[in-house]
C-alpha cells in the first residue's frame, strides 16, 4: 500500500538495545578520532552532530540577488510574527482547556508522543524520513539565504542524527556576526526557516490540487465512511466503507441520484438497501429510517440552524456519515484546489489556510496514511495529460510524496514558531520584545517624559524571553502529562 510505505511495528526493547549500541559506537568513534575526521561531535550523549561545508557555494550563488532575499525576509518576518502569536494563543487555549476540562479519552501511547518516523505509528518510516530530510534542508537553507543576504557568514551546514534517523538540521552562522547584526536583520534570518517551510507546504498543496485533476472515479457508485451508532444503518448491519448500490431496487448512480431517491421517503419508512461490502460480498439490508429533525435536535441544534439546512420534521435519516463518490479521497486532500470543489476564487483563498491546517489530523484519523486504501481503489487515472504517462500508481506516489512533504513542512514550520527558546519563535519573540521596548524608549525621549536605560531593555527582553520559555514548557508538559493522571 503506497500510503503506508515503510510503516513498522515498534518494539521498545529492541529500540532501547539499538540506542545502547549506538551510544557505544559513538563513544568508540569519539575516542578513536573518527568523529574529528567527520567534523562531528556527540551531544546529549547519543545525538551525533555532523557538520559539512557542502552546499555553501550553492548558498552563496543563490543568495546573490540580496535585495530580493531581503524582501523575502521581510515577508517571512510578518508571516512568522502572526503565525507565532497564533501558535502561542493555541497553546494557551489548549492549556486552559486541559486545566479546566481534563481529557476523558485514553492517553496516547509513548510512541505517539514522539514525532519520529516509524516509531510514531502515524508517521510511516519511508515517507516520514524522506519528508523530514527534505523539510530540514528547506528550513536551514532558508536561514542560510537570509544570513548571506545580510552579509552574515555561514560556517557550516549540519545534521543531528540518532542512528540513521534525522532529528534536526542547522545552518551554523558566525556567532559574533549574528549577535552583532541589527535586530531586524537577525529577525528576518530566524523567520526565514519556518516561513520557507510554510511556503513549501502551500506549494505542495498546489501540486496535490493539480494531481487531483488527473484522477477520475472508476464508477458512479457512492460509499459511506462512517456508521452512526443505534440508527437505522447500524441496526441493519451496514459497515463503514460499504457501497450503496440500490434502494428498494432503484439504482444509485452518484450523490444526486441518492438524494433524489431519498426525497421519496419519510421517517419511519422501511426500505431494502443493497450494499457491496469491502470484502466483495453483496447483501440486502432491511432498514427503517429515523427522523433527521429529531436526531439533530437531540444533538442540540437550534430550529434556525435546521431551517437554514432545509431539514424539516419527518425527513428520513439513514444514520450514515461521509457519504461520498469515488474521488472523495483525493478531493478531501486537495480541498478547495480540487477541480470538483464548488466555489469562486475568493472562497477558495478564504478556505485554503484552514483546510491546510485541517489536513494535519488526516494521518491520525486514518492511522498513518493520507488516503484510505478503499478510497484509493476507487480511483483511476484519466486518459489525458500526466495521468496517461505515469498511470494510477505514479499519480498515487506523487500524491503521497507531496502530502507528506506538506504535512512535515507544516509540522516543522509551526513547531519552530513556538515562542520559546531554542525554537526560532523564541528568538523572534525576544527580538520583537526588544524592538517594542526600544520604540517605547524613543517615544518617551521624543515626548521628554521618560528615558529607558538600554541595559534595562536588554535585561527585560532577555528575562521575559526566559520566563515565557519556561512557562510554555510547563504548559506543554502539563498538556502531555494530564491525560495520564
Protein architecture, described:
The chain is an alpha+beta fold and 485 residues long. The protein has 18 helices and 15 strands. Strands 6, 8, 9, 10 and 11 form a five-stranded antiparallel β-sheet that branches. A four-stranded antiparallel β-sheet has the order 1-2-3-4. Strands 5-15 form a two-stranded antiparallel ribbon. A hairpin with a 2-residue loop joins strand 3 (154-162) and strand 4. Helix 5 packs across helix 16. The radius of gyration is 27 Å and the shape is globular.
The total count of helices amounts to: 18
In the residues, how many domains can be counted?
A: 2
Helix percentage:
40-55%
Q: Give the end-to-end Cα distance, rounded to a whole number of Å.
A: 38 Å
Q: Structural class of the secondary elements? A: alpha+beta
Count of DSSP E strands? 15
User: Beta-sheet strand percentage?
Assistant: 5-15%
- Given as residue ranges, the uncertain stretches (5+ residues, pLDDT < 50) are 1-10
Provide mean pLDDT, rounded. 86
Round the Cα radius of gyration to an integer and report it.
27 Å
Amino acid at each position: 500500500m503506497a500510503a503506508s510505505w515503510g510503516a513498522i511495528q515498534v518494539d521498545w526493547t529492541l529500540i532501547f538495545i539499538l540506542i545502547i549500541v549506538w551510544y557505544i559506537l559513538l563513544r568508540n568513534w569519539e575516542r578513536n578520532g573518527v568523529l574529528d575526521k567527520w567534523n562531528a561531535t556527540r551531544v546529549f550523549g547519543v545525538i551525533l552532530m555532523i557538520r559539512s561545508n557542502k552546499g555553501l557555494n550553492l548558498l552563496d550563488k543563490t543568495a546573490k540577488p540580496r535585495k530580493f532575499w531581503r524582501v523575502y525576509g521581510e515577508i517571512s518576518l510578518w508571516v512568522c510574527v502572526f503565525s507565532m502569536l497564533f501558535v502561542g494563543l493555541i497553546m494557551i487555549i489548549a492549556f486552559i482547556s486541559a486545566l479546566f476540562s481534563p481529557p476523558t479519552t485514553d492517553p496516547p501511547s509513548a510512541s505517539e508522543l514522539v514525532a519520529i518516523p516509524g516509531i510514531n505509528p502515524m508517521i510511516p518510516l519511508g515517507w516520514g524520513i524522506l519528508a523530514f530530510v527534505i523539510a530540514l534542508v528547506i528550513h536551514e537553507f532558508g536561514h542560510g539565504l537570509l544570513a548571506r543576504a545580510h552579509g552574515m557568514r555561514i560556517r557550516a551546514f549540519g545534521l543531528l542524527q540518532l542512528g540513521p534517523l534525522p532529528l534536526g538540521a542547522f545552518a551554523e552562522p558566525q556567532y559574533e556576526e549574528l549577535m552583532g547584526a541589527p535586530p531586524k536583520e537577525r529577525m528576518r534570518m530566524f523567520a526565514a526557516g519556518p516561513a520557507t517551510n510554510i511556503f513549501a507546504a502551500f506549494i505542495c498543496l498546489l501540486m496535490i490540487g493539480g494531481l487531483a485533476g488527473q484522477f477520475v472515479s472508476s464508477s458512479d457508485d457512492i460509499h459511506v465512511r462512517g456508521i452512526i451508532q443505534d440508527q437505522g444503518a447500524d441496526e441493519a448491519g451496514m459497515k463503514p466503507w460499504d457501497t450503496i448500490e440500490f434502494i428498494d431496487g432503484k439504482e444509485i448512480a452518484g450523490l444526486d441520484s441518492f438524494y433524489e431517491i431519498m426525497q421519496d421517503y419519510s421517517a419511519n419508512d422501511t426500505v431494502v438497501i443493497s450494499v457491496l461490502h469491502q470484502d466483495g460480498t453483496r447483501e440486502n439490508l432491511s432498514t427503517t429510517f429515523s427522523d433527521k429533525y429529531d436526531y439533530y435536535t437531540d444533538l442540540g441544534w437550534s430550529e434556525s440552524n435546521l431551517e437554514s439546512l432545509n431539514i424539516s420534521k419527518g425527513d428520513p435519516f439513514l444514520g450514515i456519515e461521509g457519504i461520498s463518490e469515488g474521488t472523495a479521497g483525493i478531493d478531501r486532500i486537495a480541498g478547495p484546489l480540487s477541480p470538483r470543489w464548488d466555489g469562486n476564487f475568493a472562497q477558495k483563498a478564504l478556505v485554503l489556510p484552514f483546510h491546510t491546517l485541517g489536513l494535519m489530523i488526516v494521518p491520525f484519523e486514518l492511522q498513518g496514511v493520507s488516503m484510505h486504501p478503499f478510497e484509493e481503489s476507487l480511483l483511476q487515472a484519466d486518459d489525458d495529460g500526466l495521468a496517461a504517462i505515469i498511470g494510477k500508481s505514479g499519480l498515487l506516489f506523487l500524491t503521497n510524496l507531496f502530502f507528506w512533504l506538506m504535512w512535515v513542512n507544516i509540522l516543522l514550520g509551526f513547531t519552530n514558531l513556538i515562542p520559546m527558546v531554542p525554537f526560532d519563535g523564541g528568538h523572534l519573540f525576544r527580538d520583537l520584545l526588544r524592538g517594542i521596548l526600544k520604540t517605547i524608549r524613543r517615544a518617551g525621549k521624543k515626548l521628554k517624559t521618560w528615558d529607558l536605560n538600554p541595559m534595562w531593555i536588554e535585561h527585560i527582553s532577555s528575562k521575559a524571553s526566559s520566563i515565557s520559555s519556561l512557562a510554555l514548557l510547563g504548559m506543554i508538559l502539563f498538556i502531555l502529562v494530564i491525560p495520564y493522571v
